[in-house]
Amino acid sequence: MFNKIYKLIIAGILIILSIWQFVEGNIGNGIFLVLLSGIFIFLYFKNEMILMAFLRLRKQDFEGAKKWLDKIKDPEKALTQKQQGYFWYLHGLMVSQTNITQAEKYFKRAIKLGLSMSQDLAMAKLNLAGIAMTKRRKREAQLLLQEAKKLDKHKMLDEQIRMMKQQMKKI
């Protein structure tokens, strides 16, 4: 919706207005403006379009998630580095069902830019391992599976990792 610089400018203006309201004795208005500026600061770190795309993906609505991601015109300028990582991660998840070569490119780009949560990084590496396995690159798939297993601290991907290891034995 807003460029990341505009979000910080709006938050700064709101904080200045809240200080002015505190000085004038309007404590309620000042508190409200501080909370309102907090929303813009939060949206600086968590892009609203990416959040909406995540919500759509949770409902398995790939078309809706694609629409939200398409609203981000220039991700290099509009997003921070971690947000760019999640932008490409979401693109990789959506494309992985149809075009694995494109999905591999997106996942590698997301890993290079960085993902905040180790669980998301483990999922990206697990998807890359699956892509490497389908392309008959067994050694690369094994390395990616080991990295995914190390990153999966909550053991949420244990079953998928076990299934991929069993499939690799068949190759």
CATH class of the largest domain reads Mainly Alpha
**First-last Cα distance:** 47 Å
Secondary structure: helix percent? over 70%
Question: At CATH's second level, what is the architecture of the largest domain?
Answer: Alpha Horseshoe
Spans of at least 5 consecutive residues whose pLDDT stays below 50 are none
Decide which structural class fits the backbone.
mainly alpha
Shape: elongated
Counting DSSP E segments of at least 2 residues, the number of strands comes to 0
Count of discrete structural domains: 2
H-E string: HHHHHHHHHH
The fold-level CATH name of the largest domain is Serine Threonine Protein Phosphatase 5, Tetratricopeptide repeat
- Beta-strand content estimate: under 5%
The averaged pLDDT comes out at 90
The biggest sheet, with number of strands, parallel, antiparallel or mixed sense and barrel status, is: none
Write a concise synopsis of the structure shown:
It is built from ten helices and no strands. With 171 residues, it is mainly alpha-helical.
Would you mind describing this structure in some detail?
With 171 residues, this protein is mostly helical. The protein folds into 2 domains: 1-45, no CATH class; 47-170, Tetratricopeptide repeat domain (Serine Threonine Protein Phosphatase 5, Tetratricopeptide repeat, Alpha Horseshoe), CATH 1.25.40.10. It has 10 helices and no strands. The chain has helices at 4-24, 27-45, 48-58, 62-70, 75-78, 81-95, 100-113, 118-134, 138-151, 158-170. Helix 3 runs antiparallel to helix 4 (62-70). The N and C termini lie far apart (47 Å).
